[in-house]
Amino acid sequence: MGSVPSVPLGLVGLSLAVKHCLLSPAKDAIAECAEFMETFQALHPEAQLGNRILDLFPGCIVKHLAPKMSDDSYGDYIKQLDATLASARQDVDTVHILSDASAPTKGAFQASLAALVFRGGTKMAHIVAAGGRATAPNAELMALEMGISTALVVGCLSLICFTDSTMAMADLVDLSPHSGQVSSLAVCSTLHKWFTEDHGRILHLWHVPSREEWKIHHEAHEAAKAAKIPLRPGCRVSFDFTQAAKEVAYWREWHKEFADTVRQGRGFLELVGLNGKPLKPTSSKGGAWSLFLASSSNSLMARVCRATISHAPMGEYCLRFHPGEPTHCWCPPQPLQTRDHIL
Prior knowledge:
The chain is α/β, with parallel strands linked by helices. The chain has two domains: 45-239, Nucleotidyltransferase, domain 5 (2-Layer Sandwich); 265-342, no CATH class. It contains 14 helices and six strands. The protein has helices at 16-21, 25-33, 53-56, 74-90, 136-154, 166-172, 181-197, 217-226, 239-258, 261-264, 290-293, 298-309, 315-321, 339-342, and strands at 61-64, 94-102, 112-119, 122-130, 158-163, 203-207. The longest helix is centred in the last third of the chain and has 20 residues, at 239-258.
């Protein structure tokens, strides 16, 4: 068929100097992708509807999520955790795993993963490994994968996992493209073989509230926390870690520009948060001003916005933009009607 000629305006024929000065979304995307070391498989066979592990083995993976601490059932849930662990220690055909991770967001250390694997009351493995640069949910998922893979090599008829990360529990069987997908695919592939050998096998995923410092799970927590694994050239960097680092850098630059009175504007109203400190712009949870804008009333929201930026039909505004309009307040001694005066 022959070779296809390059597009005259394509990137291939450009010199390095031109590419360096080029502003292009394609160039930005390539530069961003170079910062993390993850691959994603959108069309993996096991991720397709009907082939997913939850489709093939419904009821074989059971999740137990802790209620809120304020709920009356919280105490009963902790008792269920205790009973489940006690029962697992008495059953030699049951393997139970306790996994945890520590994920530094800065400094010279990698994320550290820990997994304790027991058959009955006997410890079969105590594993601590490096997780590269990763967020806490990424690291928790990798620790869970490490524990399950080790447990299935040991061999068992029943498998119980204890983790303090609900996000890791959800991502474990989520095979859609996401940060940590490679861990999800590895676990589900291994579990697929294990369930196929005996459809009566069940994997129980128990959420352990970290505030409880619960029994032996706290040992896994301490093992992960104590491991100080230094960063090395070429260590794995997750997509979520890169995104989180970018977001922190963007917020820092945003706050720096917001502190500039020229950029902020001369009439911007400084509001104070519930902690008594001035609000700073953020994109999380609806933004820093969501507490004041959380209303279904359009007129109330309009008044809040007008007061915040000092663009309202008041004397101070009229003095600048409508000199012929009244500018003084009617209360004695009829001062200039400013926003601060009204407030």
